[in-house]
Amino acid sequence: MAKQNVSEQFVDILVRAGVKRMYGVVGDSLNPVVDAIRRNSAIDWIQVRHEETAAFAAGAEAQITGSLAACAGSCGPGNLHLINGLYDAHRSMAPVLALASHIPSSEIGLGYFQETHPELLFQECSHYNEMISNPQQMPRLLQTAIQHAIGRGGVSVVAMPGDIASQPAPEKSIQHALVTSRPTVRPGDAEIEKLCRMVDEAKRVTLFCGSGTAGAHAEVMEFAERVKSPVGHALRGKEWIQYDNPYDVGMSGLLGYGAAYEATNECDLLILLGTDFPYNAFLPNDVKIVQVDVRPEHLGRRSKLDLAIWGDVRETLRCLTPRVKVKTDRKFLDRMLKKHADALEGVVKAYTRKVEKHIPIHPEYVASVLDELADDDAVFTVDTGMCNVWAARYLSPNGKRRVIGSFSHGSMANALPQAIGAQFVDRNRQVVSMSGDGGFTMLMGDFLTLVQYDLPVKVVVFNNSSLGMVELEMLVAGLPSFGTDNKNPDFAAIARAAGAYGVRVEKPKQLESALKDAFKHKGPALVDVVTDPNALSIPPKISADMVTGFALSASKIVLDGGVGRMVQMARSNLRNVPRP
Predict the structure, then answer these.
(1) Which of these, 175, 194, 317, 437, has the minimum number of CB atoms within 10 Å of its CB?
(2) What is the pLDDT at residue 354?
């Protein structure tokens, strides 16, 4: 049997850790690893056109599967391109192993061609970031990197010089047992008892939920029923907690809607469940706050806590719910449900009034039609900016759909590459990229990756010929919009020239049939929808000091706009309110 080299051993360890594919761009120092992948039938090399796409795709795959995903870049500029996607994966707690191939080991520190220092560059966007300096070190170092990525949820970076990758692997290397899943974390009894007393003493309890409620929908609903609590959510909590929720009061934050803000500010006790919600201007400063989070470093960094609970949401609620007293007073809950329904009724007309005749097309209308036509288990990837607004307000979660975006890092151009990673996980599952024209053109080259691999991703471009969210920021700050206009081509024509299905939609009556045809198409498809750049109305009370950048708001006022099918759920919940 031929002796393994370090690259072959590296790839074997990744396969044992459950990695199915590695995304990247081939080149020089990375070639030995790519060749090892070529000769290993258990793992695929996915060639993309830009390494940033590789990192975004790996991050999306990890979020869909919950398992380790991998990406790679060649030395210097190649691996440097990974950094933006790795930041996003790390802040999304997606387990990703990144291989930063490096210059020859004998030349490190001597200003060699393409020399960078990966062990410094990736420090801030990783839990673990080390360089392999000799073959004996590799197996243990890679195992440590894998366990950091999986165990802590985030990115590990391994830098490996190309000459090391080609050397013979150490003989009799130990095959370590690998950690490939995370445990549950249960709080201590003392903390549970403290929380139980606080809940029992409070007359009005509100739950505010984030992505940490994934897998805990039933437990949250049971607890909310027991204490008669309104349930609000952050954007990353929407897909996990909004569906089948008779206690839903909407979303808080700059893109929020409904009564979530009122519910979080008018309660006696606010319980933050699995959320690192960063916009503290929307959180109260005069009520008791408890935070439950599996990552202790998140506890208390947004608001002053009366109790910090280190534990995952599901296990915490399983311990807590049987111990708290059943509350019978529904007055606060019912009042918030009515406020929520009234708030949605008040804004839903924003996208229904003459929308089928409005040219350019209302983007709200596009999002609502997408929501109606997409599969029940569709994966939506959402560009940062105005597409975030439409996804937050019009996509209806149901426990099977997924909504993935750059919700913590806030990068442009994330939707298309994340769709690539999501589609590779399951070619038979519908994946829809909600792309802004600015984000799409930034990494448009990787539309060719869809064509090359015949990935059936459906790209819907919200083409308003502007950087809409940036323009909104400028207007809110009292500045004239400048540098935000895009002179765009016919994206559908570009798609067709690339060998994909493409259609351009300029009139509302064309939209539904165009989307249906694209969804029926077996391969990649692009729908270029010309939308109204002035679609989002701004409440007249917003002034320059109320919004800084995309997210930070010193006010309690949120953007106006419709809410699609959410108003139907609010009406249904309101009908369930007991009548005297």
Answers:
(1) 175
(2) 65
